[in-house]
């Protein structure tokens, strides 16, 4: 009996010793900052008592310009629960600025800088349009920072628009849409840049994960709008709304699609979804570029667009939407992509 | 018995090393942030509504911020260190990001075409200003300890003085002024790089100093009545108590003798936090002194000295005799009433962004 009592006592003493040691270690060892996600959400006052926090549900639509980003956001805007609005232009700039600052070890801490960027973005994204249950932002190049945005906005999702690079590049060159870093006098340069940018965005999208980032093919969107949008709305957790298939009817209406007079896709997106722009690029690629296509733009092959096929088979259109293309063709005079 | 003891000891030792290893590797979470912080901010925030302390505090456009700035090497760090010593104020180190964001904002509003595009996108001036305010507040608030009066020191932030005065109507500005020759000598001798300034040429630096200071000074004068106070570095170090009393009265703060001994509060809670990488840290750890007043004498090339008034017209205008080497700082000339020039904010900002190319005054009219 005595022996076991002593044992118990020794055992207790040992336990006491261990717990004291642990407490002591708490102070001695460097402690780890609690994960960013545990921080208080950033809240901003937008206007008239409308407050928005960084944990609000948010969707970012992007991709290389001329890949159907405006069409996608217009169709989403036609949904009563969503508001994207026009390209803000400043969102990618502040993200670019932040990227430049990331290397600095002086000045403010990363945590404070992230909060400041979050506050800025919230004010712009919320403030430039009307309130809606799901706020959305479309600035094409933001998807290059998808991972960072996913960290700032824990309830955000991403839609990456993908398109045959040849079509995108033909569109930017023929319409003379200036895009930073793209030399509009050279198909070769633009295709190479398209490939690099697409790869970067796809990488970010993969890193964010399939639950939060969905890649959407432009060709599939215009050929099969209903099923594609069903996938998109399901991904966003939104109920189906027939209006998304007729975004052109919601233009300029309250709660509908707001277009900018100065954006380059406005004249196209005013029309119903159609197939006009699918294969217009065929016959416009310089032969030397066509010969080297796979080397210039490796992402073509990787995304399943046959670099040797002019054009590849994008698929068959849904019959009900063939009418749109006919209607649009009889009303359009000049063929710009 | 012995065997058992040994094995028990071994078992203990094993357990201890295992826990040490586990804790060391996985790390221990830091204790949760002190919620007393929120309460201090709630008390500190002037103009807050009767919100419960549990809900977050919203700083808005009425926050009475203090912005300290001026040309680098003009005593801006000394000024903010002395204010940091005041029990109600916290400035903290340079943020470095604030001037860059302000510069970017200026380029957006500079181009008429861009303004139209932004307006069309719903990104109106009002939306942009709210976003800028939100960013600036998050940085200034999060940058250091809470305080009743928050303050920011980034020298070139005052290149956007008028803009800051517009988005923060209750803010006060402290513009540090100094004899350009001393400033430029400090830059060159200490090799403090500033983009656009050629550190091998006194002439180039003095010319650009003059233009930069002119821009900031004119904005200071154009700011709403009683919101901007120019402070001369020389007067601050020669008569610290007089200058600080004037300054604190301007800021609406009670007198605190600690401001005259900022060196005692370095690194202390509620005191002066210094940056390891800022160029003035080694100087500002010392008490206020007059060492740096006339170090520049004898270092400026004679051809520059001869043409001083033409190279740096702001010298004379700020009351620094361009031909005296050195002037008698103890008996300062008054600042000359500015000529009637209108240098609109946009124009000035246009100038400052051409720092990489030769300064060409564009669209400014004298008298």
TrEMBL record, chain A:
Major place of residence: Golgi
The catalysed reaction is: L-tyrosyl-[protein] + 3'-phosphoadenylyl sulfate = O-sulfo-L-tyrosine-[protein] + adenosine 3',5'-bisphosphate + H(+)
GO cellular component terms listed in the entry, alphabetical order: Golgi membrane
Compartments where located: Golgi apparatus membrane
Q: Its Gene Ontology molecular function terms? A: protein-tyrosine sulfotransferase activity
Membrane-topology annotation of the record: Single-pass type II membrane protein
What top-level branch of life does the organism fall under?
A: Eukaryota
EC number in record: 2.8.2.20
Keywords from UniProt, A to Z, are:
Disulfide bond, Glycoprotein, Golgi apparatus, Membrane, Signal-anchor, Transferase, Transmembrane, Transmembrane helix
Which InterPro entries does the UniProt record give?
TPST-like
Q: One Pfam family this chain carries? A: Sulfotransfer_3
Q: Which family does it belong to?
A: Belongs to the protein sulfotransferase family.
What does this protein do, in the record's words?
Catalyzes the O-sulfation of tyrosine residues within acidic motifs of polypeptides, using 3'-phosphoadenylyl sulfate (PAPS) as cosubstrate.
Q: Which PANTHER family match?
A: PROTEIN-TYROSINE SULFOTRANSFERASE 2
Report what the protein is called. Answer: Protein-tyrosine sulfotransferase
Q: Which organism is it from?
A: Oncorhynchus tshawytscha
TrEMBL record, chain B:
Q: Give me the reactions it catalyses.
A: L-tyrosyl-[protein] + 3'-phosphoadenylyl sulfate = O-sulfo-L-tyrosine-[protein] + adenosine 3',5'-bisphosphate + H(+)
Q: What is its EC number?
A: 2.8.2.20
| Pfam families linked | Sulfotransfer_3
Signal peptide, first to last residue: 1-18
Q: How does it sit in the membrane?
A: Single-pass type II membrane protein
Q: Does the keyword Lyase apply?
A: no
Q: Name one GO molecular function term.
A: protein-tyrosine sulfotransferase activity
Alphabetized, the UniProt keywords read: Disulfide bond, Glycoprotein, Golgi apparatus, Membrane, Signal, Signal-anchor, Transferase, Transmembrane, Transmembrane helix
Write down the Gene3D superfamilies for this protein, in alphabetical order: P-loop containing nucleotide triphosphate hydrolases
Q: Which SUPFAM superfamilies match?
A: P-loop containing nucleoside triphosphate hydrolases
Q: Which family does it belong to?
A: Belongs to the protein sulfotransferase family.
| Function summary | Catalyzes the O-sulfation of tyrosine residues within acidic motifs of polypeptides, using 3'-phosphoadenylyl sulfate (PAPS) as cosubstrate.
Q: What is this protein called?
A: Protein-tyrosine sulfotransferase
